[in-house]
Design brief:
five-stranded antiparallel β-sheet; alpha+beta; about 30% helix; 2 domains; about 300 residues
């Protein structure tokens, strides 16, 4: 009887598993009740074993799928990391040439007193913006310590994405004046039509006045140059300072070292004064300059 019951229940369970997807809930309930009525204990054991088998099967299947998902995820993460590393390596290999400060160009006069005309040309197609700084030429000093004024300063950020070159004019320094004459004014420095700085005024011997500073215009930052010292018997004085630095040292008497070379002062400074002997040592103004900082897209 027991073997027959085992076989019957086994067959019923097999049929039940096969028809589980199509049997209605009511049919499965009736089947369960019939099995329970015939052999409660044994049917419970078989059902428990069937349940445990099914749980084990689901667990194994789920573990396999989780393993597959983890493996695929790991592969994708590795691929992303590799792609990112390749991009970083490519950027480093290029030297970061698409962003930040890429180059600086400096344009000075033909000499420390003479200006000139020239052209800024973009150093690379990567250049997108430039920062321009410029100063006009300094004014010359008159014959008895009436010093020249410094050139005006201007600064501007310019988008040059579609521009390859811009014309430049460097202002010259004003001429010096001997006894009885005034110093000459410096001339204007300009960067295309974008910004400019006028030259400093020359020292005025006839009025014993120092030269006025030049004026910057067109930039986001515009600064007037320093004014020159007026007639003084207290001692010779340095030329008026510009944005870029101080003027040349004052001269006391004829026969001292000439106003040249490293003592000529910074770009755009006024001419220095001289005292006692009225001719020979008053100084001309220093020529202007343009500095162009070139930036990429970053």
């Amino acid at each position: 009887m027991s073997n027959n019951m085992d076989n019957a229940i086994s067959n019923l369970l097999t049929r039940a598993k096969d028809s589980a997807t199509t049997a209605t809930a009511e049919e499965l309930v009736y089947l369960a009740k019939a099995i329970e009525a015939v052999a409660p204990g044994e049917s419970a054991n078989f059902l428990m074993q069937a349940a445990e088998d099914e749980v084990a099967n689901i667990t194994n299947t789920g573990s396999a799928k989780v393993s597959d998902v983890n493996s695929a995820g790991t592969t994708q993460v590795n691929a992303v990391n590799t792609a990112g590393a390749n991009q970083v390596a490519a950027l480093l290999a290029s030297g970061g040439t698409t962003g930040g400060l890429l180059n600086v160009q400096i344009f000075e006069g033909a000499s420390w007193t003479s200006g000139r005309s020239t052209t800024w040309t973009k150093s690379s197609s990567d250049i997108k913006k430039i920062r321009v700084q410029l100063v006009g030429g300094g004014g010359g000093s008159a014959g008895y310590n009436e010093n020249g004024g410094a050139g005006g300063y201007s600064e501007k950020i310019i988008d040059v994405s579609g521009i390859s070159s811009i014309s430049i004019t460097i202002g010259s320094g004003g001429s010096r004046g001997d006894w009885g004459s005034n110093g000459g004014a410096g001339s204007t420095t300009s960067f295309g039509s974008y910004l400019s700085g006028t030259g400093g005024g020359g020292g005025i011997h006839s009025g014993h006045d120092g030269g006025a500073g030049g004026v910057g215009s067109g930039g986001q930052l515009n600064i007037r140059g320093g004014g020159g010292d007026s007639h003084s018997s207290g001692g010779a004085s340095a030329g008026a300072p510009s944005y870029f630095g101080g003027g040349a040292a004052g001269r006391y008497a004829n026969g001292h070292a000439s106003n040249a070379g490293s003592e000529s002062g910074a770009w755009g400074t006024g001419g220095n004064g001289q005292l006692t002997t009225h001719n020979g040592n008053s100084g001309p103004g220093h020529a202007g300059a343009v500095v162009v900082w070139e930036y990429g897209a970053g």
